[in-house]
């Protein structure tokens, strides 16, 4: 049984140049270290702070990381990318050009005999008809088509403004309260027969195991640089450092 890795919430492109260089260096060394070790790498959403694919334009953001992911896949590692709430407009470039398996919804995975529910986690906190309506609008072909008419540079400015607004709003919520909501959602998954629930989104790393059931919040690659390792049926939440 090969080792399984999980990361989320790098939000590439969200910070100033100096911080982005540090982040990129950390991620590149992490991905390089996985070659020959990882059977699967799950990227559990918001790896990019914004991603949109035009028909003839690909973002210049983080080309070295895309190349490293390509090399990792060539070495034999499956890379599974779950769209988050910042990078849900993922198109065919990552799948057809890089070889990444892209999913717009949570993934049910079985590794080491464990049934694992993998989700970015934003849908667990999406309550009320307004939030669900907004999500449906943003994912609609009409909205995607209209955004594609905007010049990419201007589109990136809009995305940066929207991202900053999300971060400001997220600080209004108590992290403990959000964790409790997600823990209740995880309990429902455990009742459905899952052995583990793995999510991102909240950015605060957490691993809880009780009665053989494991709940994980992956943290981020902005402050914590954390990742999850599944080795010999055991989950370890670890911190990467150069």
Fold and architecture overview:
The mean pLDDT is 83. Strand 8 and strand 9 (213-217) form a beta hairpin. The chain has a six-stranded mixed β-sheet with strand order 4-3-2-1-10-11, with helices on one face. Strands 5-6-7-9-8 form a five-stranded mixed β-sheet, covered by helices on one side. By secondary structure, it is an alpha/beta fold. Helix 1 runs parallel beside helix 2 (63-74). It has one domain (3-239): Metallo-dependent phosphatases (Purple Acid Phosphatase, chain A, domain 2, 4-Layer Sandwich). The chain starts with a strand and ends with a strand. The chain is globular. The longest helix has 19 residues, at 152-170. It is built from seven helices and eleven strands.
Give keywords:
242 residues; alpha/beta; Purple Acid Phosphatase, chain A, domain 2; six-stranded mixed sheet; five-stranded mixed sheet; 7 helices; 23% strand; globular
Strand order in the sheet with the most strands: 4-3-2-1-10-11
What is the gyration radius calculated from CA atoms?
17 Å
What do we call the CATH topology?
A: Purple Acid Phosphatase, chain A, domain 2
CATH class group: Alpha Beta
Helix amount, in percent? 25-40%
